[in-house]
């Protein structure tokens, strides 16, 4: 399925309220993200830390760009409502 701008918008509108959580952990970095579809957009909250003592971070209600949105939709397409997608 090609995720054109129109298809992406349709998927976002059809899956209002969908949420997913991801965890990333590397040698000197860890991050947790909570994604949610709301208002026809993909939003995410992220929090994490790096190896520096004062390096904790937390960001709320970030709007995902189109590349991140497409990646998210491809990854979770099997869990999303696609009935009647044009």
What does this structure look like?
With 86 residues, this protein is α+β, with helices and mostly antiparallel strands. It has one domain (5-79). The chain has 2 helices and 4 strands, in the order αββββα. Strand 1 (19-26) and strand 2 form a beta hairpin. It is elongated and about 50 Å long. The mean pLDDT is 94.
Mean of pLDDT? 94
| Strand arrangement, major sheet | 1-2-3-4
Fraction of helical residues: 10-25%
Amino-to-carboxy terminus distance:
10 Å
Overall outline: elongated
Provide a brief overview of the structure.
With about 90 residues, the chain is of the alpha+beta class.
Q: Tags for this entry?
A:
alpha+beta, 86 residues, 2 helices, 4-stranded antiparallel beta sheet
Topology:
Layout: H1 5-14, E1 19-26, E2 29-38, E3 41-50, E4 57-63, H2 66-76
Antiparallel strand pairs: 1-2, 2-3, 3-4
